[in-house]
Every structure is written in structure tokens, then in C-alpha cells.
Amino acid sequence: MDKNKKIFIIFFISISVFRMIYVNFVPLVPQEAYYWKYAKNLALSYFDHPPMAAWIIAFFTALGSDSVFFIRLGSIMLSAGLMFLIYEITIRLFNSSKWALLAVIIINCSVLFPIGATIITPDVPLLFFWALIIYFLIRLNESQHWKWWYFTGIALGLGLLSKYTAILIVPGIFLYILLSKVQRRWLFTIHPYLGLFLAFLVFTPVLIWNYQHEWASF
Known about the structure:
Number of strands: 0
């Protein structure tokens, strides 16, 4: 194990433990209380947001209690996962543990990421699944194996269950494929389209909820 990876592991564990302690001393903000209320009334979706944030809160509070720690634990875990993904993505793109470590440190020095790492909002799972999509696409680029389209589709569906803006990554993916001579062949296979269909299937709870409530309004 090289020096930079050791530093990353120490930094990763240290900052995650710090956040687990820190969140206990900061009261819930109004948005978190709002999603916590959602979590106390579980549904396939909600009026102004898809359900992922509420599901995450419900999962961790069921494991523990309705304390601030367990309400926010999902945010800490997903942000830790995002740091790991950023490290792995940078390693695979630049083959440099130094740049990977620097990327993780930089994002933790930004304004919004540390806030999102301790406050549970729909943006937290959105960013995690968005990074997961990018990771799967990098694995696709490396291996040229069709299976990564389906992992990408699942991650996209979960991203859409987190926040609807996850869909904005799709045009970028297809534009990249169109402009890349190596990847363009995928446009003539069924796999990207089945990946999209898989994302649609994962997203169906939101569609079902909207259909039920639209029908109920008549």
C-alpha cells in the first residue's frame, strides 16, 4: 500500500468519525425535519420530492431511534461512500493515488459538501448515485463489457428516486457515446436502451404514486 492510500484511509476514517460525533451537537434544520416527517409516513413518493431521503431516514431510525444521530446517519454514510467513489474514479482516470487523495481533500474543503455530509437532504443520495453512475461508466470504458450498462441503469433509477435532476446526466452520457469513435458502437446495441428501461423500472414507485394521486383527485 502506497503512502497516499494510507493517508486517504486515515483521512477517510477520521473525518467520518468526526462527523458521527459532530452531528449530535447540531439541531435538525427545517428541511431535515420535513424529510423526517416524510419518513414517519412512508409512501412510494411524495408531493414535492421522490422518496429516497425519507426511505433512508426511515431505515436508519428503525435501526436505532428518532435521535439526531440516526436521522443523519444515512447522510454520513452516503457522503463517506461518495468520498470513496471520488478516490476510485480519480485513480482509474489518472492512475495517480496522489491526485485521488487531493480530489478527496479538495471536495471536503468546499462549502457545500461538508454541509451535505452532515445534513440529510435529497441532494446527498443524488450525488452518491451520480458518482456511482460515473464509476460504472468508467468500468464500461475499461472493460467494454455490456453488463456495466445495467449497473448504470440501476444507479440512474436510484438517482431518480433521490432527486429528479438525476436525469440530466443522461444527455451527457449519450453525447459522449456519440462523439467517441470507440464507444459509438454501443448506440447500435440493445444494452444502453435496456439500461434506461431498467432505470425506468427502478423509478416506477414514483410513477405509481403520481398515478394513484392523480386518479384520486378526480
